[in-house]
Structures are given as structure tokens and as C-alpha cells.
Amino acid sequence: MVFIKSGYTAYGPNGEYTRFDYNEFDEGDQLIISDSNLGDITYTFTRDETEDEWYFINGENRIPRYDLRVYDDQETKPWGAAGTYYFTIEYFGKTTTVPVSLIESDVSSIEYQRADEVVFTEQEGGEFLEDPHFGSFYYYHYHSGPASDGDRLNVHYKTGETVVYTFVENENQFVDEGGNTIGLGRGNDEVDIRDDNQYENHWEPDKDNYFTVSYRGAKTSVPVKINHVFKETITKSTTKADGSIVTKCEKCGKVSSKKVIPRIKSFTLSATSYVYDGKTKTPSVTVKDAKGNTIKSANYTVTRSAGRKNVGEYSVTITMKGNYNAKKVLKFQINPKGTSLKSVSAISKGLKVNWTAQSSKMAKERITGYKVMIATDKAFKKNTKTFTVSGYSKKSLKITKLKAKKAYYVKIRTYKKIGKTYFYSKWSKAIKKTTLK
Fold this sequence. Notes:
Elements: E1 2-4, E2 8-12, E3 15-19, E4 30-35, E5 39-48, E6 53-58, E7 61-64, E8 69-71, E9 83-91, E10 94-103, E11 107-113, E12 118-121, E13 126-130, E14 138-142, E15 152-157, E16 162-168, E17 173-175, E18 181-183, E19 192-194, E20 209-215, E21 218-227, E22 230-235, E23 243-249, E24 255-261, E25 264-269, E26 273-275, E27 285-289, E28 300-304, E29 312-320, E30 327-335, E31 341-347, E32 350-355, E33 369-375, E34 385-390, E35 396-399, E36 407-418, E37 421-424, E38 431-434
Parallel strand pairs: 1-10, 12-21, 26-30
Antiparallel strand pairs: 2-3, 4-5, 5-6, 6-7, 8-9, 9-10, 11-15, 13-14, 15-16, 16-17, 17-18, 19-20, 20-21, 22-23, 23-24, 25-27, 28-29, 29-30, 31-32, 32-35, 33-34, 33-36, 36-37, 36-38
């Protein structure tokens, strides 16, 4: 048996070594058994077409192929330099050796180009195996397949010649332009494709995975891509906590990206108070996050109360969506028109207040009345008193029982009562006046 000097990395009791595989039996091989009574009996290695099994056959007698044990000493005495080595065949305790010659190859190098990229999804397309050399842990074993239709093998011979072979799948061989062929297998002159390096170097995403291709002692590697199974998980932002968008592999747990969605900090309206003018009011909404960024309106819906034209209170409901989860109701008011003071006259220990009546209609109704406030300071913080005057047509108020010769500040506003709720206009400008003795 002649074997071109080649091999692959394997592991034995003494660690790594270069192992050479060989065909144990080929059709036509002869097994000669010496019997003390019958002499030498020759069995020929033959395929039984009816059973699709291989036997060593002598007439009606046959020996199943698996009755013979085949082994070698490569683990402890690696085959290395070109030369002759042996493997052993054992049959019922009797052994013989078969020589194997390692010779130098006529090929200097090879290149292998896949027709399609070899891509797997992490933990799919293979099986879990227990590694016999490195402890009882499990990893995923992928099967790259021997070759694909259209794969190219470039063979560079030591003579300087380069020949390109293309794999023809239905023929299971590589063919060059002249019709010359190279078989696919593990024979001496065949292309040997192996992915069993996974036993020592498990194929995983983000690693330089590869399978090996050998031909007549030359070897190359072909890259293999393992894809993560990424899934995006969104934790929605609320008014109490940040949210996040995490892209994580469902198989191995690797996080490829994580984005924080800052919590919602504030909801505001462009205005919370209007003066009645007969027009519909639609204050705009602004939502901001904890970093002060304005959240785009595509992330929420706004629902407003009907009407929003007459004096009253109205609601704006903001419902967050998308990457946010919150709901907020804001209020705004439409208040009646105000009025102004015409004059404030001093009387004995009192004041007489005159104003312009606010008699214009607001839709179908007018204001309910007026509120007059007095105080002894400009800020209306000291000795304040408020007087209610019912009726939109009223124009004056006489205030008595004040201190004589005391300066007072006076201001006025209108109000509208709807149910139990009061709606007020802005205060008018104040007038200062000193009471008489």
C-alpha cells in the first residue's frame, strides 16, 4: 500500500500527532488463512450485491469484513518521514501486518473555492456530541458536506503546472477541461474533505472556523461561517424607569447591541389658560425624556375633549406607544374676558369702586359677576379682602368699614360659574386710594 505523505491533526495519549488514514480493504484483497489440516485457504474481498455487504469469500465460505480488527500504532509511534510503516490485521487472535509506504507528493499546493459560502445557524444543522478527549462536555457539531456542485480545486504541481478541477455533484468527482477526473474520498489519489477539526476547535460564531481539503499531500482550509440567532427585545420606557432595546443571541446569549431609552420626564401643553374669543383652542403637546430630549410625536397619540371653545376646563389625554408605556391627562381652561377699573373714589372710612361692565356674550351666556380685591400693600399680601358682585351689568361697589386715612390698593376681575366650578379672568391693573376720615 502506497500512501502520499499527508495527514491531519489528531490527539493521542501523548498529545497532538499527525494521523494518516488509509483504506483498510480494497476489492480483490486476499486474506490467506493457514490451517494445519487444510493448508492455506485464500479468501478474496468481494461485495455481495444481494446484501450490499462486503465479505472475504472462498466458495461458499465467507468471513464478514467486521470479523477482522484493523489497527495501527500511530498514536504512540507517529508516522512521519517518507518511508514504510505498518498496520495490523487481527482475526481470532492471529495477526499479520500490512506495509504502508509514505512518499513525497508531486503537488506543491492546492486552493479550494466553494461555489457557495458555507454558512450555518448557531446550534442548527448538526448534533450535540460528547468529546472523548477533553472531558464530558457537549458542543455542537456541524456537517459541512463533502463538496458542492461547482466547487473549484486548483492544483499547483511541483513542475509549475496548475490544473483547475470543477466538482460535478452527480458524478461525485472533480473534472478538468480535458476530462481528467479526481475522485472524492479518502483514497491515495482522491480529494479528502474533512470537518472533524471541530473535535478540537469547536465551530462557533465570531471564530475562524474552517474545514480542511487535502489532495496528494497538499492541504488547504475553507472558511465556515456560523451565524448567531439574534433577537431584539424591547423593554418600554415609563415615567419611572428607563427602557431598553437589547439585541441578544437566543442560542449563546451574546449581546450585540444595547440601547437605553431614557424614562419619560415631563408632559406639557403649550398653554394651560386661554381667554374666551369664540375660537376652538388646541394647545400643542410636548413630551420630554430624562435627558431633556423631546420625544417625537410618532411615539404617542393625543386625544382632546370635544368643544374647547366656550369657558370651561378641558382635558388632553396623551397615550404613549412604540418604545414607551405611559398615559397622562393634562388640563387647560378657557376663562372669561376681563374688565378694567374706571375709578376708585375715597369716602369716609371706605372706597367707592367703579368699573366697565363686561356685558358681551360668551356663546349664549354672559359672565356671572365680578370679584373685587383690596389690600394695604401693592403685592396684595396684607389685610386683603375680596368682595363678590353678582350680575354682569353691575358697574360699581361701595366698600365701608375700612380704616380712616389708610391707603388701599384695589383690583377687579370677572368670573363665570359653571356647576360648582369658578372660572376667572385675569386681574385688572390696581389703583391706589386713601380713605377719608
